[in-house]
Design a protein that fits this description.
About 70% of the residues lie in helices and about 0% in strands. The chain is an all-alpha fold. A hairpin with a 2-residue loop joins strand 1 and strand 2.
Length: about 240
């Protein structure tokens, strides 16, 4: 029986017209070719929806708002790098990006991660409008808690000076740090001085330096030494 089955099978294959295997082979080749010609899947930036209200997520987190904040940021980042697809930050709707960052910050006000993402991730795109949006977002959130968030505004001050070439904006950020963030490091509180000097406003920088020294705002010996030397250098430059 086994031999008869094989013989029958062989006879059935031989009975197939020669054109049929050729047609099958041609169909397979065409299928492979058509598959190769298909455009890769397109990621759509508009797929990022507006963030839900922080109150809704807080209620749904069963008393774990920090976890909800972290998960929301992971959700946001999933649109930056989906499996097999990379979406340029410039393609994202930045108003929606800010809504997610703001919501995450409301859930966990002490976290610096949303502002780090704003200033050092989404703010690094080569698009001036989006850079300014991120900087203004950081500035607004800084004013809510200056002592916690001055570092990220300091980064935006540097960005405004060197990337946006907007020294008045850089000066505004730096001045707000020195005015509102008493816990800021000395270098951050001194940023406005160097920005003014770069703008050619040496006399204004002198006034600010002298004010820092005269009011006793700076108590650290190394900072006092640095500022004194800086003031002397400016006075010498003005005489020359």
């Amino acid at each position: 029986m086994r031999t008869q089955f094989r013989e029958g099978e062989e006879r059935s294959l031989r009975a197939v017209p020669a054109a049929v295997p050729l047609l099958l082979a041609a169909a397979l080749i065409l299928q492979i070719y058509a598959h190769g010609r298909q455009a890769p899947p397109l990621a759509r930036a508009e797929a990022l929806s507006a963030a839900p209200a922080a109150g809704i997520l807080r209620a749904a987190s069963f008393g774990e708002p920090i976890v909800a904040s972290q998960l929301s940021l992971l959700h946001l980042q999933a649109f930056d790098n989906q499996p097999g697809i990379s979406i340029p930050f410039k393609a994202l709707d930045y108003d929606r990006v800010m809504s997610w960052l703001d919501m995450a910050l409301q859930l966990d006000p002490r976290s610096g991660y949303p502002l780090m993402m704003a200033s050092q991730l989404y703010g690094q795109v080569s698009d001036e409008t989006r850079q300014r949006k991120m900087c203004e977002f950081v500035h607004a959130r800084f004013l809510e808690a200056p002592d916690l968030r001055w570092r990220w505004l300091a980064h935006c001050a540097i960005m405004a000076k060197h990337r946006l070439q907007d020294r008045p904006l850089s000066l505004r950020y730096a001045t707000d740090i020195s005015r509102h963030a008493g816990a800021a490091s000395g270098w951050a509180r001194q940023m406005r001085i160097f920005i003014l000097e770069d703008m050619g406003e040496t006399s204004s920088a002198k006034v600010l330096l002298g004010g820092l020294l005269a009011t006793g705002e700076v108590t650290d010996p190394s900072e006092l030494h640095f500022l004194t030397e800086r003031l002397q250098a400016l006075e010498k430059a003005e005489k020359n």
